[in-house]
Design goal:
about 10% strand, homotrimer, 6-stranded parallel beta sheet, 3-stranded parallel beta sheet, 9 strands, 18 helices, about 50% helix, TIM Barrel, alpha/beta, 2 domains, uronate isomerase, domain 2, chain A
């Protein structure tokens, strides 16, 4: 009975057309063109490398896409237990009619060619959107993205600010800022003005969020323009900053972003907990890890200072999930955002999902985002989440709390879609 | 079969009459008089506020109880997924014959009036105790509570010591101490004497525990009267202390409390992990959160120094649960106490309960306390716990370990009631 | 259906003959001779002590084995809920035909005598190995173990290095090192040479791993012989070191061990997170606990510096499990090793096992080791693990991911045995 119940709820959730509130889609090339686009996703390259495939083999300069896939296939057998590989299998069966249980050295070429043929169809992108039940897709745009040449109603811009906060000490970043804003930055006040230009540009092009990923030890504090002015002047004069000065500038820029989020009424997505380049010899995008010793108490000052800014918060680890639940339960401006990266596997999603649904106002829960780089991944990732969500709704609400199925399904739809519309005004 | 098994065990646990080993009941006004007493519980005000209701609306000075309930009702729809709201629904159906699925703007007035009528019955308190299966209820008394005017056999005093440890630097606290003890405190030795008077007063009035809640960064260490004497003299002379001096006094008072717990054979309830006033603009009692970066290793010196004092320990976060299990497994004087506050929801209780029941001597587990402010909450909160406990006993003991149902039920009754009697000698 | 599925998978896993990749077996006395050997295991002495039995009673000098068991039996009733006691019951029923539900003061003597009779059989050790399905057993040898007088094909040596890294400041350790290696250590270079001798000795006697347990705050860093030379000279000249100097020597020795693991191609087992002697008055081996505030980020430099050394990593707490999953998912040289000590109970194993099997290449998972001191414990401990593993395979793979039973069983066998062979080359 319980399995049938799960299935009925899952089917209802599967029928829902979605808005994906966080991806890394390139709107100029949203869908894949070869299987290498799909199997080049860092989950496969890093897992294949972790299982023994040399980085040099995976990332050989100028390698042909088909050759790259062939090399990765040699290692897939070691990964077939992972949920990440199940996403790949789902993609292959859903989009390319692939029916084999595994991808092997004897069947991959046929798969590659079939996929290439499908992907070459002129409406492939639309096919994928339709088959995946995707209505709109949030992007993650560099701050100097012109936001031109794509439909911003379908692909919703989002201002990504990591470079501004953590890499302004690089010449390149400062040059990009000047070029993008046409502001001649030389002091804290003009730096703030330039950042304001970015918000103007993004919101006038339909942006619905500002976003940043943050290291475990980051603690935002208020830094005024006066406090940082001489440091900003030094920086833009080309001087090197010491680590204290760099930190001060980071804090100032971050605080300024939060202020503009208030002015422009943009939610500020915080993705908390990643250390970059921990495994320095890893493959592209497969080098980042974390230190679980982090706490949302580090954001106390921020959450108190900006009651009018909504902070959709993602945490990298399941050990931070309870803090996220508690902080969202108490702070009106903190909402919970999806299941991120190293916590995006069923065991962690299940536990985190259960604890969220039972303790946080239902209007403050953004169930899931795909985080995808290519459109084909929305289907298997959301399906994984919908399966977990259906089980949680069946067990914790219908069985344990005696809810009607319909009521449970409504709750599922709210966290899957309704809250995305409300929280991001889209 | 498994669902029927769960139900049979649950029914047996439900039939047990309980002693509630930790509450915030006011014995002079133990039951509610209007629905505002119930819906004014911080869980509802803070969740309604978190979902969007203004603090000013909830806490308007002089607001009529019925008006307050009416305002809270406007937000309840956003919270109906939470387990906290399920407690409210249980109260309304069990005590006030309310049968609707939700409380809405169209049915709340009828509910309010029905409840008021019921609560106006002269024996309402006794009705609630009986219907809830409550035999005795532990209190949380201010250190200067006269402990008069109520039945200390039914409402068992407990010496709450937060003010002494963390707020002795306030004039008001020192004045209250002097008044309560009639000791003219001026040095470390008289401070210790005054604290001794409190223990004398409480134990002669039937107190069965000393209790304190502690911030995540607190680490008790031995501080002798000699070490702190000059600082105590300054303090009681009216001087301001710096943070180091304040900390020293806190440590001294805390250590002194532990010593008296040994002398008077009182268990010392430690509730570890809360930071007060994190969300400064929050509603009353809805401002506290935490930093999960805390460890029971901070209590190493304490647990070693007082082998004869029993420490029933509560932790605020499920990420501290494994430490609690391990420390109770090793230290004879550390016992596990309930599921506290932010960990008091089924997902956390389930996992924490399973890990405790399988690794700690069964005589060292206090299953649950309600932490309630009004009597009506014991029923739904204990029921939530009993449901989880029944499932854990059915799955982990009857099914997985082949125990008889009767043996599993006995284990359940021990952690629900038997251990409360033994550990608190009541 | 699901229970039958679990059972079928469990039976298949039970039929597998194993290599136990980490134990504390003494190969000269591998099996027990009386029930006191079994009930003297620290799990029982520490739990009985935790439940109220005096240390003096348990550890009375010269106490007769039967008398000791009799005393422990008086406390067993308080522990019968624990999984640790279920191991004991399994041993008694499997090896000694004991059929009672509990061990009590009225039946223990019969059990003791029956067991003694069985254990007195000359082939008892072989009986236990056979009945337990054990083919080979890894040891934990002191660095100065002569490794003589036993079959190193059956009992595989492993170089345990805690003393070298953390206790070289003791005279005794330095004397043992000199005696074992015949190297006259007086400087960093000769210290390194002596350590090299140990690796030569161990690997020439069939050692398959180097191992160490580490405190929560340990962070390995590269220390060169030059940096530490004068300190090592002082130490071996008999001078006392301050804590900074001691730490430097520890770091140097640890780094040197990792270097030799590379040279001799030995996996380096890291068992991360234990604080020794936290409960100072505890029974033998029942004094150690931990500080959960530790992170694998502390091992960043090590994992990067030794890409050719395989590090099978155990963590003491389930709150570190997600880090272990993530680090093993990213670093090719980090593999996951079993469920250690305070995390070796079903609630933690279940969650940790699920999260590992779904996110880490299957070739990088060492499912379990017994950590036993006496051979009789392999059977119940591995059975506990196999039961959990069977449930996870049934639910997460056969039911949720639609795998065939056979495929799920193959995955189970790989983590139970296949990976032990591959990773330790045995």
């Amino acid at each position: 009975m319980s399995e049938q119940l799960n299935k009925r709820i899952f089917d209802e959730l599967e029928s829902l057309v979605l808005i994906d509130p966080h991806t890394h889609i390139n709107p100029h090339s949203a869908a894949s063109t070869t299987l290498a686009d799909i199997m080049g996703y860092h989950y496969y390259t890093e897992l294949a490398h972790s299982a023994g495939l040399a980085k040099e083999s995976i990332e050989e300069p100028g390698i042909d896409p088909k050759e790259k896939v062939g090399r990765l296939v040699t290692q897939l057998g070691d990964l077939d237990n992972t949920i990440q590989l199940s996403w790949l299998m789902d993609i292959c069966s859903e989009f390319f009619d692939f029916q084999d249980e595994t991808i092997t050295e004897s069947n991959w070429e046929y798969l590659y060619d079939t996929a290439a043929e499908k992907m070459a169809q002129p409406d492939w992108e639309q096919q994928v959107l339709k088959q995946s039940g995707l209505e709109r897709v949030f992007l993650t745009n560099d701050f100097d993205d012109p936001l031109e040449g794509f439909d911003t109603k379908l692909y919703i811009p989002c201002l990504r600010t990591d470079d501004l906060v953590f890499h302004l000490t690089k010449n390149e970043t400062r040059e990009r800022l000047g070029k993008a804003t046409q502001v001649d930055v030389g002091c804290a006040s003009t730096l703030r003005e330039a950042i304001g230009e970015l918000f103007e540009h993004f919101t006038s092009n339909g942006a619905r969020a500002c976003a940043i990923s943050l290291p475990p030890d980051f603690s935002p504090v208020s830094v005024t323009a006066d406090q940082v002015d001489s440091t900003v002047r030094s920086l833009f004069a080309g001087d090197d900053l010491n680590s204290e000065e760099s930190k001060l500038v980071s804090q100032f820029v971050f605080w300024t972003l939060a202020e503009y989020c208030g002015v422009y009424r943009l939610p500020f997505d915080l993705m908390i907990g990643v250390n970059r380049r921990v495994y320095e010899a890893g493959v592209y995008q497969g080098q980042d890890l974390y230190d679980k010793r982090t706490s949302l108490i580090q954001y106390k000052e921020l959450f108190n200072a900006f009651p009018k800014v909504t902070f959709p918060v993602s945490v990298l680890t399941s050990t931070s999930n309870q803090e996220l639940v508690s902080y969202s339960w108490i702070f009106p401006n903190v909402v919970i955002n999806g299941h991120w990266w190293y916590s995006n596997t069923p065991a962690f999603i299940t536990f985190d999902c259960k604890s969220r649904l039972e303790a946080v106002p239902k209007t403050k829960l953004i169930g899931y985002y795909s985080d995808m780089y290519k459109l084909e991944f929305a289907l298997p990732k959301f399906r994984m989440y919908r399966r977990v969500l259906a089980n949680v709704l069946a067990t914790d609400f219908v069985i344990n709390r005696n809810w009607s199925e319909q009521r449970a399904i409504e709750l599922g739809k709210l966290v899957l879609r309704g809250n995305v519309e409300t929280i991001f005004s889209c």
